[in-house]
Design goal:
The protein is an alpha/beta fold. The chain has a single domain, classed as Rossmann fold. Helices cover about 35% and strands about 15% of the residues. Helix 2 links the parallel strand 4 and strand 5. Helix 1 packs across helix 7 and helix 2 packs parallel to helix 4. It binds nicotinamide-adenine-dinucleotide. Nicotinamide-adenine-dinucleotide binds next to helix 1 and helix 2.
Length: about 220
Amino acid sequence: MKVLITGTSQGIGKAIAEHFLQQGHTVTGIDRQDASIDHAAYTHCKCDVRDTEKLPPIDDVEILINNAGTQNEADIDINLKALITITEKYGLQPRIRSILNIGSASAHTGAEFPEYCASKGGVLAYTKNVAMRIAPYGATCNSLDPGGVLTPLNDCVMNDPVLWAQIMAETPLKRWATPEEMAQWAYFLTVTNKFCTGQSILVDGGEAINYHFVWKD
Ligand SMILES: NC(=O)c1ccc[n+]([C@@H]2O[C@H](COP(=O)([O-])OP(=O)(O)OC[C@H]3O[C@@H](n4cnc5c(N)ncnc54)[C@H](O)[C@@H]3O)[C@@H](O)[C@H]2O)c1
């Protein structure tokens, strides 16, 4: 299938692109960094997702995965507004089969940075809006909402042993996900899945259910 993925130069987006390529799909990646994937079925467009004038003309996208995102750098503009622009441009057309937005556990808990969690909360609502609008094409739209994933985005805490120990104490499964695990979820939700739509799939190792029950002994 013809797949468009944003943010493919590193992290989760790169792992998703590589997984689709391994499964024989044709992938176009949009990223503001240079390409880091060398494969005959991969085309790289070096472009900022906010730069509407420079977004490449691509017809008949069948799978769209909105993954490009940042923390504490114009989060609403990049994580939400650009995601909406890209979806309206490439996703709202009859050939679309599925759209997946990479959200965050932060949208469910309100944790992390103010603009970041608000941007991801917007993604959660917009996912439902799009799901209704592409349902007439028989297509699905969901969000995949990770907790911690081992990517360069998190280098500053992954490389700090004290902070890392604190983070693991808050994480019931005592580890973070790998980008490859997220790629498998992305593949399932966009290729295997045909009937789940408008949903936000939280994959966070139990962080969001890590409550502490208080009761009399
Ligand atoms: N890593 C985590 O723990 C985690 C948790 C929850 C959600 N997420 C989400 O997953 C997505 C990917 O995160 P990651 O951890 O792989 O991050 P990352 O920083 O490792 O990779 C992000 C990629 O997106 C690209 N990108 C960022 N802004 C861009 C822009 N304006 N235009 C074009 N390309 C741009 C970057 O160049 C980079 O290649 C993000 O939406 C992030 O919010 C990550």
